[in-house]
From TrEMBL:
Lineage, opening ranks: Eukaryota, Metazoa, Chordata, Craniata, Vertebrata
Transmembrane segments: 12-33, 45-64
Name of the protein: Leucine-rich repeat-containing protein 16C
The keyword Hydrolase is annotated on this UniProt entry: no
Region annotated Disordered, chain positions: 98-123
InterPro entries in alphabetical order: TMEM238
Pfam family, one: TMEM238
Organism from which the protein derives: Platysternon megacephalum (big-headed turtle)
UniProtKB keywords: Membrane, Transmembrane, Transmembrane helix
Length: 123
């Protein structure tokens, strides 16, 4: 699959660049400009908010990078088919148990006084 020079996840790249630009703009404005409104200095606010925006841009960069990773389908199948460890068995067991459950309230366990789940039918 051929893609352009920016990769496949252009939205994540745009988010990262937008947050980087806004964060660096706020950071540099907070450092070098003297912003006083009614005698109060707002430089610290811009410095901290700029640093937070630059940190949040990392989310966009990580999404863009992971969205551009390419794996061959046979390699992906080989990696996941080989998982036979204890953790994989536990995950399958929990997944099967949760998928058998009937939709209802968000309770994780049986309600006190209930008989528990109905018996399973074998086919």
């Amino acid at each position: 699959m051929a893609s352009g020079g920016l990769g496949r996840c252009r939205l994540a790249l745009g988010l990262a660049l937008l947050l980087d630009g806004a964060g660096m703009g706020a950071l540099l404005t907070g450092i070098f400009a003297r912003l006083r409104v009614r005698g109060q200095d707002f430089g610290d606010l811009l410095i901290y908010s700029g640093a937070v925006l630059v940190f949040l841009s990392l989310l966009g960069w990580v999404l863009w990078y992971t969205g551009n990773l390419e794996l061959a389908p046979d390699e992906l199948g080989r990696d996941y088919a080989a998982k036979g460890g204890t953790l994989a068995r536990l995950a399958r067991k929990i997944s099967r148990r949760w998928s058998r459950r009937q939709p209802g309230p968000l309770a994780l366990g049986p309600v006190r006084g209930s008989q528990g789940p109905p018996p399973r039918e074998t086919v």
